């Protein structure tokens, strides 16, 4: 059927008619009307959008805020005065209507290893574990660090925390002991939940020993974790050790065996914290982005419904790890709030082979598939056969997130994966934004490969020039900022409101600054061009160049380091490190390897430098500032470095060029 295809006209891609017919928002006019209303009357709009949830007490005021640092402290409050509970809305609210429907579909690392958990079963698991937490004395406001692989216990732990009002801080399982230690220390958590180990492809690797090392080190910094819960994921005989510390460590299965299957919820104030999630910025250590209860709940639920055009009964799969914000908002909270069947995948796209995604799509009859450009590029490279040998008939919608998608990968995703039958939503957002901000609504907004298109309801993006003046009109570019709050926005950074204000609100008074650059084309569509600060995006993961630099400098041979991103075919951006050694140290291939290993140990494998470039000296201005522009160009293989006359010593550039590849 011709009308069953995505149609291209003058560079715009239109959804198939059959998709439009059933879409929640099914015309551009409807999008425009709703958008206009959301901006003209935010309180009316967001008050209405909050109607379907359970409110133990409704709000007194929908929105109160100050975005101007010049007028006082930055504050953002949504649904002020309301009382509710996230877990109640994710689970209890659905028990009557869909208790026996699957909530989580779990696909393990090995094909054939899976679990289905219904809403009722999830209720029991969560209540039991919530009672375990209470038994440890965990109460409202306490922080719980969760360092787990993609297993159901991760979701259960988060929901159990939310049920009793504890604040979860999930740490991605690929982070090193050092990174985990930083997060434990900053959050001063009362409990760590981890597992004996996890799988990387076909191999079992330890997590518990990493967690132990992190806790040993946190103790030296004054934070002693009193209790640790260990999930047995791998078990004995797989070559990993799981030392248990008497009096501190207990197994999950022993604890839940005797726990009660009901646990009353803690009614939370709208603005009570729900979770902290650490993310990288341009300076210092990662910061704990803090999200609160009611606004985040309404926002992730609504975006999940409209952006993915989610309908009852759809099987929805987001391939992210819950250790990142995408997993928090669009594997766990958004889908469960909407009563969805959310697939949770423990493995990687290339194990046992590069057809795994589509094997899983066929197995579970996935309707909606959401992944990252880096994963698309990785499987695209392996050839179409890995895709076309699977039917993929169930697929109706495709999504991407994490970094700009190059038009070539977008077209391949559309034509090969989606058989030109599924609209694609390229969703732009951040850990800080809680949910999707710029995105197509698939039944209403025609797409362009590489553009995240238009703002979601209630979101007012704008472009600012270097002086902080708004750039009006279309066909322009600038720094991407947002003019007014949306309910899913972060409220502070954990432990320091000052840092929150400095990072996001001090560059441009009256705006939330995203750190991204963007252009707005003739049709008003947004194209994100990447970070304008010292943050690089490696395989969709945010990495502060300063973090990698300080890891390098902590090696005994290194005097100084400067890290920049460079274009990388699969990862989007790779990590390129210029390293100056201490006097007397010698360059060698072995030292390069040692430095890469050192960074892996300090931060984790995702931060491994792709290139180490020996730098007898770094190009610096007279005031001592490293001219990263030159380093970026050199890393990208360019030979025109622009004006170098402001350097303290312009000859440094020639020396660096000579050292390339040495
Ligand atoms: C959700 C998430 C945020 C940064 C963001 C931007 C980049 C995310 C994007 C995108 C272009 C998209 N980014 N989605 N760039 N198009 N669709 O990824 O959060 O890990 O905090 O990263 O990722 O640079 O500022 P987070």
From TrEMBL:
UniProt keywords (A-Z) are: Acetylation, ATP-binding, Ligase, Magnesium, Metal-binding, Nucleotide-binding
Xref: Pfam families:
ACAS_N, AMP-binding, AMP-binding_C
Extract the GO molecular function terms from the UniProt entry. acetate-CoA ligase activity; AMP binding; ATP binding; metal ion binding
Q: Where does Mg(2+) bind?
A: 553, 555, 558
InterPro entries, from UniProt? Answer: Ac_CoA_lig (IPR011904), ACAS_N (IPR032387), AMP-bd_C (IPR025110), AMP-bd_C_sf (IPR045851), AMP-binding_CS (IPR020845), AMP-dep_synth/lig_dom (IPR000873), ANL_N_sf (IPR042099)
Q: What region holds the AMP-dependent synthetase/ligase domain?
A: 92-486
Q: Which residues carry this modification: N6-acetyllysine?
A: 625
Documented EC number(s) = 6.2.1.1
Tell me which residues bind ATP.
Answer: 402-404, 426-431, 516, 531, 542
Under the heading CDD domains, the entry gives: ACS
User: In its UniProt entry, what is this protein called?
Assistant: Acetyl-coenzyme A synthetase
Instruction: Please state every residue range assigned to the domain named AMP-binding enzyme C-terminal.
Output: 547-625
- Keyword Magnesium assigned: yes
BP term (GO), one: acetyl-CoA biosynthetic process from acetate
What are the residue boundaries of the Acetyl-coenzyme A synthetase N-terminal domain, all occurrences included?
A: 31-90
Signal peptide from the UniProt entry: none
Which of the seven top EC classes does this enzyme belong to? Answer: ligase
Which portions of this protein are annotated as coiled-coil regions?
none
Record-listed CoA binding positions = 200-203, 326, 539, 600
Q: What are the names of the required cofactors?
A: Mg(2+)
Please report the PTM annotation for this entry: Acetylated. Deacetylation by the SIR2-homolog deacetylase activates the enzyme.
Q: Which reaction does it catalyse?
A: acetate + ATP + CoA = acetyl-CoA + AMP + diphosphate
The record's annotation in HAMAP family points to: Ac_CoA_synth
Q: In which family does this protein belong, per the annotation? A: Belongs to the ATP-dependent AMP-binding enzyme family.
**Species assigned in the record:** Desulfoferula mesophila
Q: Which SUPFAM superfamilies match?
A: Acetyl-CoA synthetase-like (SSF56801)
């Amino acid at each position: 059927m011709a009308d069953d295809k995505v149609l291209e006209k003058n560079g715009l891609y239109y959804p198939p008619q059959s998709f439009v017919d059933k879409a929640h928002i099914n015309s551009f006019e409807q999008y425009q009307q709703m958008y206009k209303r959301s901006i003209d009357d935010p309180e009316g709009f967001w008050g209405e959008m909050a109607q379907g949830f359970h409110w133990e007490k409704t709000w007194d005021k929908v929105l109160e805020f100050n975005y101007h640092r010049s007028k006082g402290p930055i504050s953002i409050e949504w649904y002020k005065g309301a009382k509710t509970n996230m877990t109640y809305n994710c689970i209890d609210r659905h028990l009557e209507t869909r208790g026996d429907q699957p909530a989580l579909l779990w696909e393990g690392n090995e094909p054939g290893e899976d679990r289905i958990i219904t809403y009722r079963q999830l209720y029991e698991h969560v209540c039991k574990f919530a009672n375990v937490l209470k038994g440890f004395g965990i109460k409202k406001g306490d922080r719980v660090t969760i360092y787990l692989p993609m297993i159901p216990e991760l979701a259960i732990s988060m929901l159990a925390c939310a049920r009793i009002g504890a604040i979860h801080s999930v740490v991605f399982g690929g982070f090193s002991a050092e990174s985990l230690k930083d997060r434990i220390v900053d959050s001063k958590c009362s409990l760590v939940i981890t597992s004996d180990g996890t799988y990387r492809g076909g191999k079992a690797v330890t997590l518990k020993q990493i967690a132990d090392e992190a806790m040993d080190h946190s103790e030296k910094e004054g934070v002693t974790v009193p209790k640790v819960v260990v999930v047995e994921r791998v078990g004995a005989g797989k070559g990993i050790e799981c030392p248990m510390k008497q009096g501190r460590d207990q197994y999950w299965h022993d604890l839940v065996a005797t726990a009660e299957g009901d646990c009353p919820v803690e009614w939370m104030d709208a603005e009570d914290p729900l979770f902290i999630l650490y993310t990288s910025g341009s300076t210092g250590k990662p910061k704990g982005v803090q999200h609160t209860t009611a606004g985040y709940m309404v926002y992730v639920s609504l975006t999940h419904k409209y952006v993915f055009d989610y309908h009852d009964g759809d099987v929805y799969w987001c391939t992210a790890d819950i250790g990142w914000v995408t997993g928090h908002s669009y594997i766990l909270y958004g889908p469960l709030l909407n009563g969805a069947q959310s697939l949770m995948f423990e493995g990687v796209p290339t194990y046992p082979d590069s057809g795994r995604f589509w094997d899983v799509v066929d197995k579970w009859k996935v309707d909606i598939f959401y992944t990252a450009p880096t994963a698309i590029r990785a499987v695209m490279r392996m050839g179409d056969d890995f895709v076309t040998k699977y039917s993929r008939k169930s697929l109706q919608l495709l999504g991407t997130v994490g970094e700009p998608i190059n038009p070539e990968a977008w077209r391949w995703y559309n034509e090969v994966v989606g058989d030109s039958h599924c609209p694609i939503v390229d969703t732009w957002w951040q850990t800080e934004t809680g949910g999707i901000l710029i995105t197509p609504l698939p039944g209403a907004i025609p797409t362009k490969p590489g553009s995240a298109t238009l703002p979601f309801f209630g979101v007012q993006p704008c472009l600012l020039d270097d002086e902080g003046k708004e750039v009006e009109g279309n066909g322009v570019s600038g720094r991407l900022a947002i003019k007014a709050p949306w309910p899913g926005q972060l409220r502070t950074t954990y432990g320091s409101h000052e840092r929150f204000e400095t990072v996001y609100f001090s560059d441009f008074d009256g705006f939330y600054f995203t750190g991204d650059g963007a252009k707005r084309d003739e049709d008003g569509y947004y194209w994100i061009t990447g970070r304008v600060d010292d943050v690089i995006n490696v395989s969709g993961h945010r990495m502060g160049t300063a973090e990698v630099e300080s890891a390098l400098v902590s090696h005994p041979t290194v005097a100084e380091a400067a890290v920049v991103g460079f274009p990388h075919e699969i990862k989007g951006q790779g990590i390129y490190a210029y390293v100056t050694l201490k006097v007397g140290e010698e360059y060698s291939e072995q030292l390069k390897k040692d430095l890469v290993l050192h960074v892996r140990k300090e931060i984790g494998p995702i931060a491994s430098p792709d290139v180490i470039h020996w730098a007898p000296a770094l190009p610096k201005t007279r005031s001592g500032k490293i001219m990263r522009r030159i380093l970026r160009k050199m890393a990208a293989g360019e030979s025109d470095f622009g004006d170098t006359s402001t350097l303290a010593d312009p000859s440094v550039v020639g020396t660096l060029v000579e050292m390339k590849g040495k």
